Amino acid sequence: MEYEAVIGLEVHIQLLTKTKIFCGCSTDFGAPPNTHVCPVCMGMPGVLPVLNKKVVEYAIKLGLALNCRINKFSRFARKNYFYPDLPKGYQISQYELPILEGGAVEIFINGGYKKIALERIHMEEDAGKTVHKPDGSYVDFNRAGVPLLEIVSKPVMHSPEEAGEYLKSLRRIVRYLGICDGNMEEGSLRCDANVSVRIKGEDKLGTKTELKNMNSFKHVEKALEYEIERQIDVLKEGGKVIQQTRLWDEKSGITKPMRSKEESFEYRYFPDPDLVPLIIDDKWIDDVRKTLPELPKEKLERFIEEYGIKPEDARVLVEERELAEYFERAAKESKEPQSVANWILSELLGYLNRDGKEIKDTLIKPEQIGKLVELVEKGIISGKIAKTVFKEMYNSGDDPEKIVKEKGLIQITDRGEIEKLVEEVLESNPKAVEQYKAGKKNTIGFFVGQIMKKTKGKANPKIVNELLVKKLEEK
Predict the structure, then answer these.
(1) What is the pLDDT of residue 320?
(2) Contact 85, 51 (CB under 8 A)
(3) pLDDT at 321 (0 to 100)
(4) Kind of pairing, strands 112-125 and 104-109?
(5) Nearest residue to 359 (alpha-carbon basis) of 313, 325, 308
(6) How many CA atoms lie within 13 A of 153 on its CB side?
(7) Per-domain residue ranges for the chain?
(8) Helix (H, G, I), strand (E, B) or coil at 153
(9) Among candidates 445, 450, 461, 442, which has minimal Cα distance to 423?
(10) How many Å apart are CA 180 and CA 469, to the nearest integer?
């Protein structure tokens, strides 16, 4: 029997608000433990939460970007469970009346687009963090009360690759919107996966397990691969899959049981009596809609249409909003957008990756890339010299024209001067000339190399090749 996997993801994103969801404490990451706390986020008796308006606006923004239904009436609920880093003994979340329902995340996989349908998106507060050390366990409540959006997909993915692409697409969108930095290592984007297997062709879902403790796209895919194989092996051996929560162990490369999986009734949800229902009007939605940026897929399609660049290059360029904007500014300075894309993707990103930097860290202004391409296109410098110029641009941030002028790198295009060099090289290498005459046409590369050596790479390669062929054929 052939089995198929059924995967649904629950993704939590921490919102980039300055303060927490129900109090005025800072959300800055990395502060000393328990310094960003107050009676409200610590759950002291008699305190009252007050909803952060910016959290609602960010939720609406994401809902518009993903074509969700924005519920004009929604409500907060208490999700009751005990954990050391949950100071109130319950979490303020949303249950039967979430702010967003439906919608989809579009992914690019196997050469085409696929929509991954969403169940719901709701607002909630984060818990604190338990830190385990050799001498004991400690609790840091700085994160308690940081605003979250939980994005729940429908169980419509069937491979770890689809799940990975879904996560990458979602991360790209929330970063474009400016509502989350998407940093999985710092926990600002976290993913739990629900996975089950069934015989291919069946409609009924199998018993699911929930996977936790995955802090990178790679770990998500590896954990899903392992768990799918584990469940298939259990069924093939005549066993039953147990509904439980399992942890991904990165070192051993396996999932391990953590606890039995809770059902929603075990959390004893009920409306939070301290928070009034949330009512959203059309004007509020329209005001947020005006702040939406051009989203990655729209930008991708426009780059291909407007600049005529290769689709595979456009996909890399739109991966980060800052990179896409950098390319566009550079492309406007040049008549050769594809050449601009090539320089950014190969040279610039190569240097930045080597140095562990991001596009915002480069000294090269986008307009300078366009100017460099123009120098090559006009034949003022060769492609080889352009790489030398680019390296200097990366280190100093100087304009390419200034570097070319100061270092005397202008390309030799005088045909008479190049012709003399060609004759000198041919006269100095009679054996190579005889080899060419004998049919070894690839020796022309040797002659080109000799001329470039004499001119320190400044001779125009097109003219060099043209005159070499002419002189050799005359012989």
Answers:
(1) 95
(2) no
(3) 95
(4) antiparallel
(5) 325
(6) 27
(7) 3-288, 296-406, 415-474
(8) strand
(9) 450
(10) 59
CA 410, 463, 427, 456: dihedral to nearest 10 degrees? 20
Class of domain 415-474: mainly alpha
CB 300 within 8 A of CB 314: yes
Give pTM, 2 decimals: 0.85
Q: Which long-range contacts does 379-384 make (Cβ < 8 Å, 24+ apart)?
A: 379/411, 379/413, 379/460, 379/462, 380/404, 380/410, 380/411, 381/409, 381/410, 381/411, 382/411, 382/457, 382/458, 382/459, 382/460, 382/461, 383/461, 384/452, 384/457, 384/461
Is the alpha carbon torsion for 154, 156, 160, 164 positive or negative? negative
Q: What is the DSSP string of 231-299?
A: HHHHHHTT-----EEEEEETTTTEEEEEEEPPPGGGG--EE-TTSPPEE--HHHHHHHHTTPPPPHHHH
**What is the biggest distance separating any 2 CA atoms in the chain, rounded to whole angstroms?**
100
With a cut of 70, list the residues of the chain below it in pLDDT. 261-262, 411-414, 475
Other C-beta atoms closer than 10 Å to the C-beta of 471 total: 16
Query: What's residue 407's pLDDT?
Result: 80
Nearest CA to 22 out of 310, 215, 275, 266 is that of 275
Residues 6+ apart with CB under 8 A from 453: none
Q: What contacts 328, CB < 8 A, 6 or more positions away?
A: 303, 366
Joined tokens for residue 151:
């994005």
Please choose, from the candidates 102, 23, 67, 35, the residue with its C-alpha nearest in 3D space to the C-alpha of residue 274: 23
Using CA of residue 157, residue 163, residue 165, residue 167, what is the dihedral sign?
Answer: positive
Specify the pLDDT at position 409. Answer: 75
Q: Are 98 and 10 in contact (CB under 8 A)?
A: no
